[in-house]
Specification:
Shape: elongated
Oligomer: single chain
Mean pLDDT: 85
Amino acid sequence: MFRSSSFAMLAMFLAAAATAQSPAPHETDAAITIAQAMAPREQLRGLILATLSRATTAAMIEGKLGREATSKLFATETAGAVDRHGDEWADLLAAAYRDTLTPVELATAQAAFRSGDRTAMAPLMQRVGPVMQERATPLLNKAVTEVLAAAYEKMGKETAR
């Protein structure tokens, strides 16, 4: 449904953008802290929307409803998908960091997020990215399918009026 290189590039972009956030100081699990700092719900939202932009069904919906109405519909349905799947996405992200990096690397990543050191994070994210992609692709596909199905149903109701 989507290209793996697009997934990796968008995830890296979103992760880099999230480095400005500070992790919650009460978290004791470095992988959870890192995942939270990466704004997993925003990451999921961005990946759903990026995937939708390349979907044939999305183009068909846009052809029927127009660009503006489709954008609003996709934003609404994507928000619902993020509400339903955001926690699982965050858990997958934390697990990918926890299972890929050593405790020393996790501490390095945590410190890099706190200081906004993107250079220190880049090689670690490159290692974690493929693991996250493999684990999260089914969830992303499920979320995109839900968004498309709901949008298609609403398109049918709109065009039946």
